[in-house]
Amino acid sequence: MSADLGRAYRRLLHAYPRGPRREELLDTLLEAAPADRRRPTVRESVNLVRHGLRARLGYPRSKAVVVLVFLIGLLGAYFGGAGGSRLGWSFATPVPSAAAAAEITGTVFPGLKVWGGGDPDVIVPQSDGEGVEYGYATYWLRHNADTRDLRGYAAGVQDRLTAAGWQIHDYAYQPPEDMVDGGQDSSVSFWADRPGVILGYQGNLWTGMPDYDSDGGVTVTLRRSEPAWVSFFTWSAAALGFALAWLPAAWTSRRFSSFGLPGPLPGIVTGFMIFLFLPTMLLIPVPDSPGRAPWWAGLESGYGWLPLPLVLGALMVVGAAGPDLARGVRFVGRHPRVATAGGALIVLGVVAAATLPRAFDRPPVFSAPPPCHPPAGPPPAPSDSVVGDSRTVHIYVDPATTAHQRALVTAAMRRSWAGYDGDLVWDPGSAAFRAEYCRGATVPAASVASLPYFFTFELDVPADYPALLQEVQGMPGVVAVHRVPEQAG
User: Fold this and answer.
1) pLDDT tens string 250-265
2) Which of 38, 69, 361, 387 could lock 249 by a disulfide, CB 3.0 to 4.6 Å apart?
């Protein structure tokens, strides 16, 4: 009989709860094994693990306990798989390299100036704040005579991509539709993929718009498709999560069985797990195109009804640990000094956690803001080393501009397609105005009239700054356009 076979059986028998049954099973398995066997068969391994996990449940008096423990195991597998998937993605690059992206955009937009790009994180928040999605880079251009023919230009793009080895999917054309504010909107979209990359194509054309508004453009998004190793991380972590959740749940089941008090609690918790937890776990966000959002994205934006069955499950664990807790309470009762010292440490810890951060956040009582005398006009432009990779832009306008002129500046910002415009900062008492001209101090009343108002603007990527400048620089009322450090925005 091989010693390796005995060690392999011992490892598998760890699926059973501790006790003499392990040794009894080991002896039986070794006696029944053929003399030439060196390792357990696959069928033996599966049976030992399956029956061992079942044995950990004990002999529950309610069938609901078996269902409950299985659901808790699924919960552990769900969270374990989500963590494993997230860990696997941390080893991936989110988007193609700059050289690969240039080759792709050159295929889609040959001979045209393309804006956008960037180096996003692997996982990024969705624009509506409702969840997360995989990192992506967006490339875009404003319309010209060729791209305004949405279907014709998209057909040429598909031909070029197909010739380059891409697979085209889900082509859709929306004919012109009336918009609420006037004009018509038409669009064309599709997505394409090749090994390692997913491409999304979207073209919009807005007709019947005022001259100062944009008539649309074309965007291309590039994102990384899921690497093969992510599935390995996901399933490995899911199996580990199932085991880690099953073990304490099975221990709880055995403790309840030993008390002889099944009661209605297992059935109640099982019902909550079925009707509240399973829909939360199975509610996978539907992406606009494959590869956009991870299947576990819901964990990033909320847990729905999940806390309720978790709380009830925790109550079951506490109930199962009742005798051990009682022994702890008796120990504290016999040692009042230990209880007093422990209670004092807990109180001190809570007080320190609540007060120390606030104490460090407050400025010293003897400090006073320096006097502020801002010079007339916009502040000097920060150097490139100070700005760094900031995406924040301030567009300074003369306070004497009319509302119509400021509306044209807003239209120009939106027409640039370079990012998102913010509100006009004009109130001298606002935090943004004081931070811009006096580092947070009060702006002297005598200086207010000589200081420009400013719009805030967030670029999609720093490389889009020239596209914004093309639209707003030199417009009536615009006195300066500066990229600024993000903390200044």
Assistant:
1) 776 666 665 554 555 5
2) 69
